[in-house]
Amino acid sequence: MTDRAHAGGVMAMLVERFESQHLNRLLQLKQAMEAGDRLSDHHSNYLARALGEARLSKHIVDRHPEYHRLYTRIIGLYGDITRRALENEMNAGAAASGAIP
Fold this sequence. Notes:
The chain is mostly helical and about 100 residues long. It is built from four helices and no strands.
């Protein structure tokens, strides 16, 4: 098996894993953050692990331009969730201190 074929197989496995194990959970987290929920420690740990997985696959994605757009969208989804989670934390802190969010 050539290196390119092997890397393509690895990418197919990574995409399948993302779709089956991460996508629905991430979309649910995004929806919860958009509703103003706060990120639990459990969800924060999950995001850290999932993002770490995505970062580990970056070197393979770099060799397969056909996956660049998908990878960018996935990283963007992580960014959207974490930005909104930070906003929610800041708003909760402001509300607890009596400041107007």
